[in-house]
Amino acid sequence: MNYAIFRSEPIYTLNDLAQLGSHNKREKSSYRSNPNIRRELSSENIELIPLTEKYVKGFYNKTLDYRKEHEEKMKKERKERQKTFNQMVNLSRNVVADELLFTATPNFFKDMSKEEIKRWADTCMDFVYQDLGYKKEQVLHATVHMDEDTPHIHCVVIPLVKKLDKRTNTERYTISKKQFIKDKLHLSVLQDKYCERLNANGFRLERGIKSDAKHQKVKDFKKTTRYYENKVEVINKNLDNAMNDFEEKMKTTKNSFIDKDYVKVKKETFESMNKVIDETRKAIQFQPKINELFNEVQTFTKSHQTLEKENKSMEKEISKLKSRNQELVEENNSLKSILNYILDKVKEFFRNLLKIGNKETQEEVVEQVKLYYDNKDFNSDDVFDIATRTEKEDELFDYANVPSYLKSRRSYNKDDRDKDDYEMSL
């Protein structure tokens, strides 16, 4: 599967902008820092939005009104507070420009003609205009580099906008990337839209890793996996403790007969049972997070295998992550087995209490079964197994919408109630 890639890199100073322009426009005869650039193929590069002048000069031309506004403002400032336009944009917290990078994993471009690459590039530019919201006059330069291993687009935009200055209650120019990409969460949404636009135009690409995971350092990713590992260990420990306590309480419950037909469960036994229930639910609720982590690790490794093949140290970390991921899968499977075992025992426990528990105990069990059903821990089949041939079957069958074909299997006569001995195998 090929992955769509869209990134945004802020440019904070005019000097950085000048260096970027030198790279993007191939103004050097050779690039020792980037041996992947083959200058003999640079003539194949595709100019989407051409720029015949230097990047900084192009910046000045596109921000001329901004510069005039700033100079007028400085005339009213005390001399010691005056700044040139260059000083203002370089020292501002805002960016001077934003570089949008578009590409895909290498196999996507295999055997693709230059005309088809141009169609892909035009689709990317449609995304810039229609999804990001930039106007053509805000694009400083856009080019497709065909002289490196993988074709990619450098689109440099100047997010110059007019915003309300609350202090003066007037509209003033400012350069604000946040008007187009608000934050990382918004960037992730835009990356979804980018992939959707490409696929709508016939380019079969998968959404890459979510931006917050894709840009994590490997050590940060390992920190995340360690958190989940510790969480799994805590869940297992809490489940073991709850089960051990429950088993101890059940030893006294077995000998708490009131008469030959009924047993009364002590309050602390129900509290212990509820502890098992709570810990079970915590483990069940944690399962989607575990599964999400597994998917994230797999996507992370697949993506970096493609994008970072030349980075040997990264490959070693990927190998370690793969190994740890397999261990987590095994731990997760073990945890699921424990959960299934506990749920089976809780079902058995509930059924026995419905059969020979006293009225108060049976009412409590009914509420617990309903709660389990609402939380989707039990389905209608489970409720049938628990309640069939007990005095609470009608109430629980109706609550869980037990299908008629199951109801037809019951053979229960309230005048001839099951009087099996009370047995617990927990």
Shape: elongated
Q: What are the secondary-structure elements, in order, as H or E?
A: EHEHHHEHEEEEHEHHHHHHHH
Q: Biggest sheet: strands side by side, in what order?
A: 2-4-5-3-1-8
Tally of helical runs: 14
As a percent range, the share of strand residues is: 5-15%
Describe the structure.
The protein is α+β, with helices and mostly antiparallel strands and 426 residues long. The chain has 14 helices and eight strands. It has helices at residues 14-24, 55-62, 64-74, 85-91, 114-132, 184-200, 211-214, 218-253, 267-307, 312-356, 359-374, 380-387, 393-399, 404-407; strands at residues 3-11, 46-49, 97-104, 139-145, 152-157, 160-165, 170-175, 206-207. The protein has a six-stranded mixed β-sheet, with helices on both faces. Strands 6-7 form a two-stranded antiparallel ribbon. A hairpin with a 6-residue loop joins β4 and β5. α8 packs antiparallel against α9. The longest helix has 45 residues, at 312-356. The radius of gyration is 33 Å and the shape is elongated. The protein starts with a strand and ends in a 19-residue tail after the last helix. Residues 211-215, 255-259, 305-310 and 411-426 have low confidence and may be disordered.
Would you summarize the structure shown here?
The chain has 14 helices and eight strands. The chain is of the alpha+beta class and 426 residues long. The strands form two sheets. It has a six-stranded mixed beta sheet with strand order 2-4-5-3-1-8, sandwiched between helices.
